[in-house]
């Protein structure tokens, strides 16, 4: 008997767009952030004129991408409450199901197939993505503390009273910078693992994985 499959919309268009905007922003923030921490390049300037503004350019891009990440994350959290992300919210049911946890871990250890899921993410994925969301919030807050410490007018002046208690809680601006740097390394570690696991899922369980974040569609057996 021929096996039939049906297409299921797993990720909405906005979810996919926000995913790639955040991914590009994080890559750009890592690159510009490491340059700001250690400016290993400098333009040649033999005239003595003040034209070597590469550091200022990198700082500008870092700020632009940082605020872009914050804005997209806020909209992404709002999107989770809408009908478009109903399948993603149903992942919570799988998260509190020990049998699904056991099935997922067993499949990752190559002892069985992937269990049927009610939502878009398996429990391990959901736990990881919640951790990444907390990382984004933490690195955004530490970035805003650093921003308010440099820019005392406009937005910086507006958020300074809100950021000052957080700066004190961290033990001073030097510690905030250190925390910001350490959290960056958390993303550096997460990205290759995320790409590998998504690719592994695509190869091991065709119909899901990397292709769904492009098309938004996964294929399930039609019972």
TrEMBL record:
GO terms for biological process: respiratory electron transport chain. Keywords: Cell membrane, Electron transport, Heme, Iron, Membrane, Metal-binding, Transmembrane, Transmembrane helix, Transport. It comes from the Bacteria. The keyword Nucleotide-binding does not apply. One of its GO terms (molecular function) is electron transfer activity. It is found in: Cell membrane. One of its GO terms (cellular component) is plasma membrane. InterPro entries: Cyt_b561_bac/Ni-Hgenase, Di-haem_cyt_TM, Hydrogenase_cytochrome, Ni-dep_Hydgase_cyt-B. The chain crosses the membrane at residues 20-41, 61-80, 92-111, 126-147, 168-197. Its main location: membrane. Residues 11-203 form the Cytochrome b561 bacterial/Ni-hydrogenase domain. Pfam families: Ni_hydr_CYTB. It is a multi-pass membrane protein. SUPFAM superfamilies: Transmembrane di-heme cytochromes (SSF81342). NCBIfam families: CytB-hydogenase. Belongs to the HupC/HyaC/HydC family. This is Ni/Fe-hydrogenase, b-type cytochrome subunit. It comes from Helicobacter ganmani. The lineage of its organism: Bacteria, Pseudomonadati, Campylobacterota, Epsilonproteobacteria, Campylobacterales.
